[in-house]
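ok, trying the design again with the full structure, not the truncated one.
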């Protein structure tokens, strides 16, 4: 599972659910930079470290020993949770897991070293492990 080695702040403030900010497309990490094929998010969601690991495992099993994979997201936002049957008040709960907040347009995974059919199948299986809609994208051949 992915999580930060050291964090500046153990607990983050929650933030607001602004529709404009949530649904606006991402501006960073939107192109296939390392591999030949990628998985691009269409909807927004919070992806946990467990979900990223499950998607990574299914990709590596589908590719076998030939392909190379890049994970383009890292869960660094702590999510807190109060214990079961604890009354309201008495402060914020303890950190339970880490998430990455995905906005539309973000490249989640990249693959190289395999045929397009195998890459498409691996990323299709990975999408089933994630709580968002995503599409298969190819590297732009016109770039140098």
């Amino acid at each position: 599972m992915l999580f930060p080695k050291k964090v500046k702040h153990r607990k983050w403030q929650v933030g607001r659910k602004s529709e404009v900010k949530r649904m606006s497309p991402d501006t960073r990490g939107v192109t296939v930079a390392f591999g030949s094929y990628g998985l691009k998010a269409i909807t927004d969601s919070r992806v946990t470290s467990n979900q990223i690991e499950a998607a990574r495992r299914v990709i590596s099993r589908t590719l076998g020993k030939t392909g190379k994979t890049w994970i383009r997201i890292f869960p660094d936002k702590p999510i807190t949770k109060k214990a079961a049957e604890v009354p309201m008040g008495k402060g914020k709960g303890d950190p339970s897991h880490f998430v990455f907040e995905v906005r539309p347009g973000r490249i989640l995974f990249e693959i190289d070293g395999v045929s397009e059919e195998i890459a498409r199948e691996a990323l299709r299986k990975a999408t089933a492990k994630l709580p968002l809609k995503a599409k298969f994208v190819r590297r732009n051949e016109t770039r140098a």
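Keeping the full-length input from now on. The CA atoms of residues 31 and 107 lie 7 Å apart.
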